[in-house]
From TrEMBL:
<keyword id="KW-0479">Metal-binding</keyword>
<dbReference type="Pfam" id="PF00868">
    <property type="entry name" value="Transglut_N"/>
</dbReference>
<dbReference type="InterPro" id="IPR023608">
    <property type="entry name" value="Transglutaminase_animal"/>
</dbReference>
<keyword id="KW-0012">Acyltransferase</keyword>
<feature type="active site">
    <location>
        <position position="309"/>
    </location>
</feature>
<dbReference type="InterPro" id="IPR008958">
    <property type="entry name" value="Transglutaminase_C"/>
</dbReference>
<dbReference type="InterPro" id="IPR050779">
    <property type="entry name" value="Transglutaminase"/>
</dbReference>
<feature type="binding site">
    <location>
        <position position="494"/>
    </location>
    <ligand>
        <name>Ca(2+)</name>
    </ligand>
</feature>
<feature type="binding site">
    <location>
        <position position="437"/>
    </location>
    <ligand>
        <name>Ca(2+)</name>
    </ligand>
</feature>
<dbReference type="GO" id="GO:0046872">
    <property type="term" value="F:metal ion binding"/>
</dbReference>
<dbReference type="InterPro" id="IPR014756">
    <property type="entry name" value="Ig_E-set"/>
</dbReference>
<dbReference type="InterPro" id="IPR036985">
    <property type="entry name" value="Transglutaminase-like_sf"/>
</dbReference>
<keyword id="KW-0808">Transferase</keyword>
<feature type="active site">
    <location>
        <position position="374"/>
    </location>
</feature>
<keyword id="KW-0106">Calcium</keyword>
<dbReference type="Pfam" id="PF00927">
    <property type="entry name" value="Transglut_C"/>
</dbReference>
<dbReference type="InterPro" id="IPR013783">
    <property type="entry name" value="Ig-like_fold"/>
</dbReference>
Length: 737
């Protein structure tokens, strides 16, 4: 059968002059884009026209023939070849061949096959509608048109190689597509289309900060920018997955997690950095969205400096949405990084109570850690490779934390599998489960124990305090009413039987994890300590580190205590020591005391790093019983914001005046000041440098914008300086025609 479809174009002798010659193909990119929900892609509006289509839907185009000739059914041969990649193959579904007879009035084939019908014919044109199979690989397809005459030998065909690119994307609106997402249900009635949020929305929020003070920061995804789809194609070529596998969103999304970062040296988009040294690039906190990153990457073909988890997640969300995969960033507050697969975050102390710098049970010596927050992406897709019930949201993570199958890639991990502890299901379920539900265990050296350490404390409630994303169809530029707490999709209520069963199910699959969970927690001792937690303080205010102590015994207890306050990077690494104090005192029987370490604004100003995270740490030992206690609390210093005001008619094609205002409320000069702003449909990403700001000085910036299309838009701004970063603001702008 296939031999009849394959034909030679090395025609000897040359095709007859009477054979139809194609003069031009008109894809009517805008008309098709409206039907395929791709009208906002900038490439659609560029010249030459670029068709951006979704699989599982038909599209219409016109072929114009040269010399005023028309297509004559029965006499003329007209064949269409749709090809993907350098070696297109019908068997591998990277080629579609259609023979146009001229009498096709309807599309009659199943939607997993290429099909064609004639819409109309004029003197020198033919209008065709082609059905794109629902399961073809995504990518840039090319059209070749062969013409001939039925009376001529099969080899005498004329070739027209269409110069236009045809982008074919996933189609989450098509029920047969593996990324199909149903509408949101309310009271049994079909209501809002979730795809308006998870595919079409080009501005959103990413939650950042310490538990208790985290807030949603605005992020411009910019999936419609004219650089985004070319970068997506470049990434798919760079990751090396065969073209035929690009039909599978599981394969594609996993490859994207590898290519958004460059940790494997494969020329991915972003370089990660967490040490605060960004002089040779852009500080992660200074980005306002994905567009500038993607444009810089496309222009240089080299990784952009710098990103952190939430930036990786923002860019990954952009490329997923651009390709038609429903996606949303998800923030895990108090996120565990389990380096050895035990489902525990372990801290070790010697017999005297001194913290060890390495993990004695980890062959590489790496230590587990807890991040104040960590952001990954959820992508929506069916999972035909897993048992029934594990499709839907899948966790994918582009932040290079641990290798998976030899590369820095993560997921897709079924969120339902994570909730049920099914760590044997592909991919990386165990790693994500530990991130949201590991136990925090403190070990102390004890030579009488068979492993040399005894478990002092196990905190089953610390990790995965909240898992947040943006609520669909709500965008709050002032407050946090658009917060969607989805913790219960990852785990049952903390401490419940269901939650414990899920974690122990995961533990049961790991020999090493079972060993760690075999050792019981040491019995409670007679001095009770408590570190009073802080949630947030406005920048410039003082605070206290407070510990309460209660001696529940009838004997005197001698306490050696250490209190400290540090500034920290959000991944748990200490930046600077702010205050440190030690004390030894006697606690009388059945007595209660309070330790207090004051910290002034002068102590921490100048030592804060990005996101304003501070850590309080308290530890104590009881001389008489050798009891050891340690507790930590992270909180956030809250920064001021950028105020944005918009004046003007707010109509398409008419100027708007935008005023950005930032007041330096700090008692110090801010240097190397920058303001970045962007808003899809209003302005492209713009970075500007400004003079130093003295204490109390106001920076006012006025710009004029010209709205490009009607609708609700978001304008996002970020002020950055050497001393302080992550000072943001946003405003909604409703534009009418």
């Amino acid at each position: 059968m296939f031999s009849r479809l394959c034909f030679s174009v090395s025609s000897v002798p040359k095709p007859s002059k009477s054979i139809l010659a194609v003069d031009k193909v008109y894809f009517y990119a805008k008309n098709n884009a409206t039907e395929h929900r791709t009208i906002r892609y900038e490439l659609v509006h560029r010249q030459p026209e670029t068709a951006i289509l979704r699989r599982g839907q038909p599209f219409t185009f016109i072929i114009r023939f040269a010399d005023g000739k028309s297509f004559n059914p029965g006499k003329d041969i007209l064949r269409l070849n749709f090809d993907l990649g350098p070696n297109p193959s019908i068997i591998k579904h990277t080629q579609g061949i259609l023979n146009v007879r001229g009498d096709e009035e309807e599309l009659t084939k199943e939607n997993d096959q290429w099909d064609v019908r004639v819409v109309g014919k004029d003197a020198d044109t033919i209008t065709l509608q082609v059905q794109i199979p629902v399961d073809v690989p995504i990518g840039i397809w090319k059209l070749k048109i062969f013409t001939g005459e039925t009376s001529e030998p099969a080899g005498r065909l004329r070739l027209y190689d269409c110069p236009n690119d045809i982008y074919i994307l996933f189609n989450p609106w098509c029920e047969e597509d593996s990324v199909y997402m149903e509408r949101e249900e309310h009271g049994g009635k079909k209501a809002n289309n979730l795809l308006d949020e998870y595919v079409l929305a080009d501005v959103g929020k990413i939650w950042m900060g310490a538990y208790g003070s985290a807030r949603g920061r605005e992020w411009v995804y910019g999936q419609y920018d004219d650089a985004t789809l070319p970068v997506c194609m470049y990434l798919l070529e760079g990751c090396g997955i065969p073209h035929f596998e690009r039909a599978n969103p599981v394969v594609v999304s996993r490859a994207l997690t590898k290519m958004v970062n460059q940790a494997d040296g494969d020329n991915g988009i972003l370089v990660g950095r967490w040490d605060g040294k960004y002089d040779d690039g852009t500080a992660p906190s200074a980005w306002t969205g994905s567009v500038k990153i993607i444009e810089d990457y496309l222009a240089t073909k080299t990784p952009v400096k710098y990103g952190q988890c939430w930036v990786f997640a923002g860019v990954l969300t952009t490329v997923c949405r651009a390709l038609g995969i429903p996606a949303r960033p998800v923030s895990n507050l108090v996120s565990a990084h389990d380096t050895n697969g035990t489902f525990t975050i372990d801290r070790f102390f010697d017999a005297k109570g001194n913290a060890l710098e390495s993990d004695p049970f980890n062959p590489g010596g790496e230590t587990d850690s807890i991040w104040n927050f960590h952001v990954w992406v959820e992508a929506w897709m069916a999972r035909a490779d897993l048992p029934k019930g594990y499709g839907g949201w899948q966790a994918i993570d582009a932040t290079p934390q641990e290798r998976s199958a030899g590369f820095y890639q993560c997921g897709p991990a079924s969120v339902e599998a994570i909730r049920k502890g099914q760590v044997g299901l592909a991919y990386d379920v165990a790693f994500v489960l530990a991130s949201v539900n590991a136990d925090c265990v403190t070990w102390k050296e004890d030579k009488t124990s068979e492993i040399g350490y005894v478990q002092m404390n196990c905190d089953r409630y610390k990790v995965g305090k909240q898992i947040l994303t943006k609520k669909p169809f709500v965008f709050d530029t002032v407050g946090q009413s658009d917060t969607d707490d989805i913790t219960d999709t990852y785990k049952s209520s903390e401490g419940s039987n269901e939650e414990r069963i899920s974690l122990l199910t995961a533990v049961g699959s790991s020999v090493r994890a079972k060993r760690f969970f075999r050792y019981p927690e040491k019995a409670a001792e007679d001095v009770v300590f408590d570190l009073i937690e802080l949630e947030r303080i406005p920048i410039g205010e003082s605070f206290n580190v407070v510990v309460t102590l209660e001696n529940r015994s009838k004997q005197v207890r001698t306490i050696n205590a250490v209190l400290s306050a540090t500034t920290n990077f959000y991944n748990g690494v200490k930046a600077h020591l702010v205050r440190h104090a030690t004390a030894t005192f006697v606690l009388q029987p059945m007595a209660r005391e309070e330790l207090r370490l004051p910290v002034s604004a002068k102590d921490y100003m100048g030592k804060l790093v990005e996101y304003g995270i501070m850590k309080l740490c308290a530890s104590a030992t009881v001389k008489e019983t050798n009891q050891t206690w340690i507790e930590e609390d992270d909180f956030q210093v809250i920064m001021p914001s950028v105020d944005i005001k918009v004046t003007g008619s707010k109509k398409v094609g008419q100027p708007l005046e935008v005023i950005f205002t930032f007041v330096n409320v700090l008692k110090m000069q801010l240097t190397q000041c920058k303001m970045a702003f962007e808003g899809p449909g209003l302005t492209r990403s713009d970075f500007r440098d400004y003079p130093d700001l003295a204490p109390g000085e106001t920076l006012t910036i006025k710009i004029n914008l010209m709205p490009k299309f009607a609708g609700e838009h978001s304008l996002v701004a970020c002020f950055d300086s050497k001393e302080f970063t992550e000072i943001t603001g946003a405003v909604k702008v409703v534009v009418t025609k």
